[in-house]
Amino acid sequence: MILDSSLNQSVFILVISFVIAIGYNTIRSDSLDFIYIRSEGAGVSKQDSLLAHDTILIEPTMIDRELAKKMYDLGILFVDARETEEYNESHITGAILVPSVSGDLTKISAPDKPLITYCSGGHCDLSFELAVELMEEYNYEKVFVYEGGLPEWEDAGYPVDRAK
Amino acid sequence: MNSLKNKWIILIFRLSLGAMFIYVSMDKINDPSTFSDDIRAYQIVPFGFENFLAIILPWLELLTGLALVIGVMVDGAALLSIGLLVVFIIAISSAILRGFNIECGCGLKEDEIVGAQKLLENTIFFLMGLCIINRTSHKYEIFPKSD
Fold it and tell me: Are residues A51 and A29 in the same domain?
């Protein structure tokens, strides 16, 4: 019989799962698009639109590696949200360490200047928490969170300072 | 190693592996969006396929689990379990190697971070799957019919 082989059985279970999953996703009210699309603005480049003076951010904005690099090239200051030891081990070239400067950050960069926070990538929350703190408590107007963080930055071969 | 082929041991493995898959699928079926975020955090799925996986995988886990528990198409379900667990083990290992401190998205408990413990759990379930597929006894299997 056709369903006697384990491979055929696997394919059968796979197909049934597929059909139910697609069907259920179609009828549920909060259905997901099959393909995840990062939102992109049209027309002007995204970094220009985000950095424009008349752009108002009401909360920190997540940015991907490509955008982070474009902003890095524009000289935007990167703020490392991790611990001192981690920062000393390696950090994005030019980035400053926040735990040692929090409170004094306004002396380094005025609140109307954009900042990019980062940490260890993935779901590391430090960069986002720091970004919220910078916007809410220190009145920074444009704070971006580089989601990929140091691991992604290093993987891409972008400038990193390492402990000697 | 013969004790691992004992019909009762195999039955326990089948029920444990099946129950685990059913249990972990529930939260993911209810909240595919969060599961998609968890998958995205691994940064290994290309072309925005995270959503697609988040829609399909939980149902695959549920049906695989049900098949193992009920005793229907156990060979196929065991093969799928092994395949799924190999993928999970590779994903978790790659996250650990890249130094990611991310949520597992495994569904057993909330806020579990990838690490050696998750790797060990998945490896144990993987070995259970191997024992099931290599079983000689087909105790309490409905289809194909048991001994």
Answer: no
